From TrEMBL, chain A:
This is Stage 0 sporulation protein KB. One of its GO terms (cellular component) is plasma membrane. GO terms for biological process: transmembrane transport. SUPFAM superfamilies: MetI-like. InterPro entries: BPD_transp_1_N (IPR045621), MetI-like (IPR000515), MetI-like_sf (IPR035906). The lineage of its organism: Bacteria, Bacillati, Bacillota, Bacilli, Bacillales. Coiled coil: none annotated. It is found in: Cell membrane. Keywords: Cell membrane, Membrane, Transmembrane, Transmembrane helix, Transport. It is a multi-pass membrane protein. CDD domains: TM_PBP2.
Automatic annotation (TrEMBL), chain B:
Gene3D superfamilies: MetI-like. Residues 174-363 form the ABC transmembrane type-1 domain. This is Stage 0 sporulation protein KC. One of its GO terms (cellular component) is plasma membrane. The lineage of its organism: Bacteria, Bacillati, Bacillota, Bacilli, Bacillales. It is found in: Cell membrane. The chain crosses the membrane at residues 43-65, 176-201, 213-231, 237-256, 291-320, 340-363.
Length: 308, 376
């Protein structure tokens, strides 16, 4: 297990290193100069500015400086907000994004599990068909389309909830629902399949044979065992949520990382794009790692296989 | 006792020939025939397939059904509501309506008239609430845009903010989505299958290096890749294509590798090799066909995610550049005037949802059809 963790950590470092290196060299090959008004500045002025930001150094030295800064958490300075550090901007905006992500993940998996469980218990019944149908819809309809529908009908037409902005908990309801649809659908479908498989296994028959009532069979023997494989989809779900926040925050004008990211793309603010990209990459790799390790800890069969 | 016993000569031994026992009574079905029969029985999958065919036909011929080009701008006909003869009951009647409330009926009426530029001869008002019960008075005004603008032709899906025909643009956008679907399938089939197949078949050091490479590649999120691509190339169909080509095949390669690892030591492969078959023949004739079910299922599932990916990128402004139409950019534009002109968002949103649902349902159907466990 320790060897496995170390191996995974090494891969994580290699991947991050590769992404950061790619990022740096792409920034170097970008057309244009970092000076927005280069033609208005004299040669000496340009030289002073370039000197100040270390842009006169040879590329390997710049690369070394960039990497050392990066390791210390310094992501550079934003183009659109003068003299504001990318790290500060990201730190200011990570709160709403995190809140939305965690809420959506929490609500999404719980509702999804319940839906999937209902489907499996009433297999091939009306409830099963309708929840499977809902899950297909939730999996298929893009989150930004769904967000638009919610915003139009609940926000504009009915006026029950605020259309956009971020001024209190009620402002987080619509974005959270829009984000949670995908986890609900995926968790429901996965839970249904797993539960059906588990309920067909021998130990369930044994439990029934020794007289455990239906509730006990479903929840004590079935549900807990069906839950384990669900951990494997949590990783892709979390990644999906991270992608989802980019658009959802934009639609609902939530001051989070995603909204800043889309703005930065439209403004060509490369340091912010790069900083956010690195952050997304890091979170992505980290979440996958945590979930893989968690899986090993929770499922004893995997631990045994590793121990051999 | 009148116990009538059946006479003994009613009992005749059944004459079974030795050969009859082994005779197969029904024609044997190949794996593919069997799967196809099961797929045809799946109503959802067949509906999905039909929807896809209809959408593909509309994407192919839709833009030629009206006389407007996808880039033809005309501000005098901006934001026209959709109008189709005979579909008025669906709301596609070319009317704009709005509910205004004020203290008195007269004030509400004035507000409603102002909302539609005071063109009174084209506005019909309807009093919803005359305000006598203490509530605010509400007046619903309906404005006949086509009559007011003296427009003879109908815009089936309306027009966007620059007066471009939404019908033409929606189907042009659908073409992009279908191109992406085709592309994702091709990449999965070509790169993914080849990579996984070679990696598993040759094994050993080749496999080791190829897998290490995949492990590094899989660590880089798709989104990060496309952003990096777009920083080098211009945003557009080319950079999306390249980003998909870099990352789209990885899961397929892994699945094919796993399957071929399982197959390659089985007896029929050994037999083929004993008969002198070359590596390429064994791969093409024995290993790949036996993996084909999995390959098709996985391809079908990667198609909707690729379509979503393109629409998503276009939506956040990383996809197709402005004048071009993709369902993502159309939806993005629709959000700008969602409150007053929801139709601009509505049609592209419906089409992309239909495409995604159809592909997902079809993929589910194929998975069930290829699964021998589902056989009755």
């Amino acid at each position: 297990m320790t060897r496995y963790i170390i191996q995974r950590l090494i891969y994580m470092v290699i991947t991050m290193f590769l992404i950061a290196t790619l990022t740096f060299f792409l920034m170097k090959f970008l057309p244009g100069t970092p000076l927005s008004a280069a033609d208005k500045l004299s040669e000496e002025q340009q030289a002073v500015v370039l000197e100040k930001y270390g842009l006169n150094d040879p590329v390997p030295v710049q690369y070394f400086n960039y990497m050392t800064n990066l390791v210390q958490g310094d992501l550079g300075i934003s183009f659109q907000f003068d003299n504001r550090e990318v790290t500060t901007i990201i730190m200011e905006r990570i709160g709403p994004s995190m809140q939305l992500g965690v809420q959506a993940m929490f609500i999404g998996t719980i509702i999804g599990i319940l839906l999937g469980l209902t489907s499996a218990i009433y297999h091939n019944g009306m409830l099963d068909y309708s929840s499977t149908f809902l899950a297909v819809l939730g999996q298929s309809i893009p989150s930004f389309v769904f967000a638009g529908l919610l915003q139009f009908f609940i926000g504009v037409k009915l006026g029950w909830l605020p259309v956009a902005l971020w001024e209190g908990w009620e402002y987080s309801i619509l974005p959270t629902i829009s984000l949670a649809i995908f986890p609900i659908a995926i968790a429901a479908r996965f839970m249904r399949t797993e539960m059906l498989e588990v309920m067909g296994s021998d130990y369930i028959v044994t439990a029934r044979a020794k007289g455990v009532n239906k509730f006990g069979v479903v929840f004590k023997h079935g549900f807990r065992n069906a839950l384990i494989p669900l951990i494997t989809v949590l990783g892709p779900l979390a990644v999906g949520l991270m992608t989802g926040t980019l658009v959802i925050e934009n639609i609902f004008a939530v001051p989070g990382i995603g909204e800043q990211f889309v703005k930065a793309i439209n403004m060509n603010d490369f340091p912010i794009i790069m900083g956010t990209t690195l952050l997304i990459a890091f979170l992505f790799i980290f979440i996958i790692l945590v979930i893989d390790l968690l899986y090993g800890v929770i499922d004893p069969r995997i631990r045994l296989a590793e121990g051999e | 006792m009148d116990n009538q016993k059946p006479s003994k000569d009613l009992f005749v031994p059944v004459e079974t020939k030795e050969t009859e026992i082994d005779k197969i009574s029904r024609p044997s079905l190949s794996f593919w025939q069997d799967s196809f029969i099961r797929l045809r029985k799946n109503i959802g999958a067949m509906i999905g397939l039909a929807v896809l065919v209809v959408l593909a036909l509309l994407a192919a011929f839709g833009p030629y059904m009206t006389e407007y080009g996808q880039y033809e701008q005309d501000l005098s006909r901006a934001k026209m509501p959709p109008k189709v003869e005979g579909l008025g009951w669906l709301g596609m009647d070319g009317m704009l309506s709005d509910v205004q409330s004020a203290d008195t009926v007269e004030q509400a009426k004035t507000k409603a008239m102002m909302r539609f530029n005071n063109q009174e001869e084209y506005i019909t008002t309807e009093v919803l609430n005359d305000g006598s019960n203490g509530e605010a008075a509400e007046v619903k005004a309906t404005y006949d845009v086509y009559a007011a603008k003296n427009m003879d032709e109908n815009f089936w899906f309306g027009t966007d903010g620059l007066g471009r025909d939404q019908w033409t643009r929606t189907w042009m956008g659908t073409r992009v989505s279908l191109y992406i679907a085709f592309l994702a399938a091709a990449i999965d089939m070509l790169i993914g299958v080849a990579y996984g197949g070679i990696s598993a078949y040759y094994g050993g050091r080749v496999d080791n290096y190829m897998q290490r490479f995949i492990e590094i590649l899989v660590g880089i999120p798709n989104l990060v890749l496309i952003i990096l691509m777009i920083l080098i190339l211009e945003p557009g169909i080319m950079s999306i294509t390249i980003a998909l080509a870099i990352s789209g095949w990885i899961s397929m390669a892994r699945i094919v590798r796993g399957q071929i690892l399982k197959l390659k030591n089985q007896e029929f492969v050994l037999a083929s090799r004993t008969l002198g078959a070359k590596d390429s023949r064994i791969l093409q004739k024995h290993l790949i066909p036996n993996t084909l079910g999995l390959i098709i299922i996985n391809t079908m599932f990667s198609i909707p995610s690729a379509i979503f990916f393109e629409a998503f990128l276009s939506f956040i402004g990383l996809g197709l550049p402005t004048p071009m139409a993709s369902l993502g950019t159309l939806i993005d534009a629709g959000f700008d005037s969602l409150q007053i002109y929801p139709h601009i968002l509505l049609f592209p949103a419906i089409i992309i949802s239909l495409i995604m649902i159809a592909f997902n349902v079809l993929a589910d159907g194929l998975r069930d059809a290829f699964d021998p466990k589902m056989r009755e």
